[in-house]
Amino acid sequence: MREDSDSVEVKVILVAVDGSDYSEKAVQYGCAIGPPLGAEVILLHVVPRMVSATPYHDTMSDQPFLALQKVGEDILARAKKVAGPCQVTDLIDHGDPAARIIEIADEREADLIIMGSRGLSGIKRLFVGSISDKVTNNARCPVMVVR
To answer: Are 70 and 23 in contact (CB under 8 A)?
Structure first.
């Protein structure tokens, strides 16, 4: 976020999408906020890396990754439809979703990250946390979590 003494300038908004209803709302917010500010809106989907259960990397062990890659492409295509006439850049990446969202926000010098809340609760949240929690607690720029 670029700050002068009296103003905040938002030039890049990173919207993380995962195909959930909440992430579609995040796209809507990104497109409502970005264009009036003249900000670039980037849609990002991170395909989680899968650890192969076999020591050999053959075509069979690559199948789950290729399936997830295709799902990621479909998620981005749907997000672009949700964006409608809003000008967006789409990006697909691979790795730990929270870490990659933070790293890409830094690389692209994002002024704001917008993402959906997956609504984890109870024991599951205690043990695994959520991607939005990790991003909110570790990103250098503000994070808007949409429900």
So the answer is: no
Here the tokens at position 59 are 């075509």
Count Cβ atoms below 10 Å from residue 99 Cβ, excluding itself.
14
H helices present in 5-121, as ranges: 21-37, 59-83, 97-107
Question: What domains lie within the chain, and their CATH numbers?
Answer: 2-146 (3.40.50.620)
Q: Where do the H-state alpha helices sit in 7-52?
A: 21-37
For CA atoms 77, 83, 88, 94, the dihedral sign is negative
The predicted-structure confidence for 31-89, as pLDDT tens digits, reads as follows: 999 999 999 999 999 998 765 555 555 544 567 778 888 999 999 999 999 999 999 99
